[in-house]
Design a protein that fits this description.
15-stranded mixed β-sheet; 217 residues
């Protein structure tokens, strides 16, 4: 796992064809056997939105989320309930429970889990390989399949960084396309995240600054 860090991104966002000035921050804080992650996005005329993921860490399995939150005006939470048999995902949005698979991630932790997987076994993820992770959102869960691309030099606001490209193509009509670039020099943390929604709206987060954070107990 990469050490605790704060990553600040310059954001190029478009909504209904209109460009919106925006910024975002990812705070990644691992501890002894646990983690906290928070992504906060702020855009002019739109306001703030945040995603949070908390859970445990395992040398064998990486991130094991216990709760995911997605907050716009109010928060919707997804609980990874392993006290039930079989385990289930419970949604505060009152959508039906869904089965909790052994390696289920959430929409924030999945980006960090991909980095942990590449850091642990980089030779396993050659260009052209696919990585499939069961991924929970605020209302449901589905399989997200990422295709591993090439390692390229990205010209970012923070400077030029080598990064591995992974691309989640939509499987269903209303799926988002998710592309992420993970930098080996930063412990495979995401240095660019590009979301393309089914309606054409785009959020392109590009690393502007990064700094270490103190370890939590």
């Amino acid at each position: 796992m990469p050490p605790a860090a704060e990553l600040q991104y310059d954001v190029r966002a478009t909504r209904k064809g209109m460009s919106l000035p925006a910024q975002s921050v990812l705070r990644w804080q691992p501890a002894a056997g646990s983690y906290q992650a928070r992504m906060e996005f702020k855009a002019l005329f739109v306001g703030a939105r945040s995603q949070t993921s908390v859970g445990t860490l395992s040398a064998a399995d990486g991130l094991i989320p216990t709760r995911y939150g997605d907050k716009n005006r109010s928060e919707q939470a997804t609980h990874f309930d392993r006290t039930r048999q079989p385990p289930v995902l419970r949604f505060s949005a009152n959508t039906p429970d869904q089965p909790l698979q052994p390696h289920t991630q959430d929409r924030l932790s999945v980006l960090l889990q991909l980095g942990a997987m590449l850091a642990g076994e980089p030779a396993r993820f050659a260009p052209g390989q696919t990585v499939t992770l069961h991924t929970a959102g605020p209302k449901d869960a589905d399989l997200w399949q990422f295709r591993v691309g090439n390692t390229t030099a990205l010209n970012l606001p923070a400077g030029t960084l080598e990064a591995v490209h992974l691309d989640r193509a939509p499987l269903h009509t209303y799926d988002n396309r998710v592309e992420v670039w993970l930098a080996p020099s930063l412990g495979y943390l995401p240095v660019r995240i590009l979301w393309t929604q089914a309606n054409g709206d785009v959020v392109d987060q590009q690393l502007a600054r990064h700094s270490p954070l103190p370890l939590t107990p």
